[in-house]
Every structure is written in structure tokens, then in C-alpha cells.
């Protein structure tokens, strides 16, 4: 059994629903913010997740970043020690999807040689009639960048638990692999 602390940065264009996702994730069901308050720089939300089918727990520090580009320079300092990332777009807003490549680039500039991983998340699937980005397009982008892929609705609290269960189990798996590698190196040196 392990308890790990993981720093997760959440990025994406303004109004895609990053704060809504973090609030719903952090406070379980009824925390969906109906009115829009743009995030200034970044907010921190804590969330504990029990890894499915195990006794392991991950405590996430969610850095809910602003989508406003005026904060980009300052945000890079916040992102520098992250363990994993979540890039969010709005399935009813094509430019928010196009900009995911830019957000990925910004993250890779700040992460240095960190061994991090991430997920791509299409939010607002409750607005199916207004959807302009297909599930297939989202999947393709995620696969090409070796990211996990999810769609969700913060409004309906749909699909959010799955994102965090995936990130938690991936984080623990990577931790155990690192430990095994270190143990092997120690054995080989003695
Ligand atoms: N229909 C619908 N609206 C949503 C959903 N998630 C968020 N919203 C709405 O979209 C607006 C923006 O949500 P936020 O979570 O504040 O967006 P953000 O990505 O944090 O924006 P910045 O902080 O400016 O970067 C708010 O009015 C939310 O109520 C969703 O799943 N479905
Ligand atoms: Mg926000």
C-alpha cells in the first residue's frame, strides 16, 4: 500500500471548463459552478483517489491554470515541478481544440526532462447538439501525442471520475516501475 502525492496541472483555453472540472472532481457531486469566474493565474484544489482494485491512494494537487495568455510566463514557473498534465478543450469550440497543440508545446517547454504524462479531455458533452469536435478527432490527437483520452461533462458530473482513476493508476504504475529500476541498479552495483 502506498500514498503518493501527485502534482497535476490543468490547462486549456479560457471557458473550456477547467475550473468546473477541478471543482466537481475535488468536491464530488454538487460543486459545479454555474456562473463563470475567470481564474487569475492558478488555483489549487486537493483530491484524493483510491487506485481501483488496490490499497494505493494518490493525493492530487490540482493546479487549475488560467486560460488567459497574459499569465503564460508566470504559469511556466507553476508548472515546472508537475508530475502530470490534463489539457482540456470544449467539444463545442473548435479553436479550443486547435489550441491544444499550443498548450502541449507550452508544457513541454516548461517541463525540462521531467518524465511526465498526461490526458486530453473534451468537456461539455452535455451540449451534444452544438458539438463541432468529434470523439474520433480527439482520440486521434491524443493517440498521436501518446496521451490518454477522455470526454466529460462537468455540468452533469459525467466522465470526470474516470479521468482521475486513470491518472492515479498510471501514476502509481510509473512509481513502482521507478522503484524496481532503482532496486535493480542498487543490486547490480553490489
Ligand atoms: N454546458 C456546460 N457548461 C460548462 C461545463 N463546464 C463548464 N461550463 C461552463 O463554462 C463556463 C466556463 O467554465 P470555467 O470552468 O470557469 O472555465 P475555465 O476553463 O476555468 O476558464 P478560465 O479560468 O478563464 O481559463 C462557465 O460558465 C461554466 O458554467 C460543462 O461541462 N457543460
Ligand atoms: Mg478557470
TrEMBL record:
Endpoints of the signal sequence: none
Molecular function via GO: GTP binding; GTPase activity
UniProt keyword list: GTP-binding, Nucleotide-binding
SMART domains noted in UniProt: RAB (SM00175), RAS (SM00173), RHO (SM00174)
Matches recorded under InterPro entries: P-loop_NTPase (IPR027417), Rab (IPR050227), Small_GTP-bd (IPR005225), Small_GTPase (IPR001806)
Superkingdom in the source lineage: Eukaryota
NCBIfam families per the UniProt record, alphabetical: small_GTP (TIGR00231)
UniProt-recorded name of the protein: Uncharacterized protein
Source organism (scientific name): Adineta steineri
Amino acid at each position: 500500500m502506498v500514498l503518493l502525492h501527485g502534482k497535476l496541472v490543468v490547462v486549456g483555453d479560457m471557458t473550456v471548463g477547467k475550473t468546473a472540472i477541478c471543482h466537481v472532481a475535488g468536491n464530488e457531486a454538487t460543486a459545479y459552478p454555474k456562473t463563470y469566474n475567470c481564474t487569475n493565474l492558478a488555483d489549487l484544489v486537493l483530491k484524493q483517489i483510491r487506485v481501483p482494485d488496490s490499497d494505493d491512494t494518490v493525493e492530487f494537487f490540482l493546479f487549475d491554470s488560467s486560460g488567459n495568455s497574459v499569465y503564460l510566463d508566470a504559469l511556466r514557473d507553476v508548472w515546472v515541478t508537475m508530475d502530470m498534465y490534463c489539457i482540456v478543450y470544449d467539444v463545442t469550440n473548435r479553436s479550443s481544440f486547435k489550441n491544444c497543440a499550443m498548450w502541449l508545446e507550452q508544457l513541454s517547454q516548461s517541463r525540462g526532462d521531467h518524465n511526465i504524462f498526461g490526458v486530453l479531455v473534451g468537456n461539455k458533452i452535455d451540449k451534444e447538439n452544438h458539438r463541432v469536435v468529434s470523439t474520433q478527432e480527439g482520440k486521434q490527437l491524443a493517440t498521436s501525442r501518446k496521451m490518454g483520452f477522455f470526454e466529460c461533462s462537468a455540468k452533469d458530473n459525467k466522465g470526470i471520475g474516470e479521468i482521475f482513476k486513470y491518472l492515479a493508476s498510471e501514476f502509481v504504475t510509473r512509481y513502482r516501475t521507478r522503484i524496481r529500476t532503482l532496486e535493480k541498479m542498487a543490486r547490480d552495483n553490489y
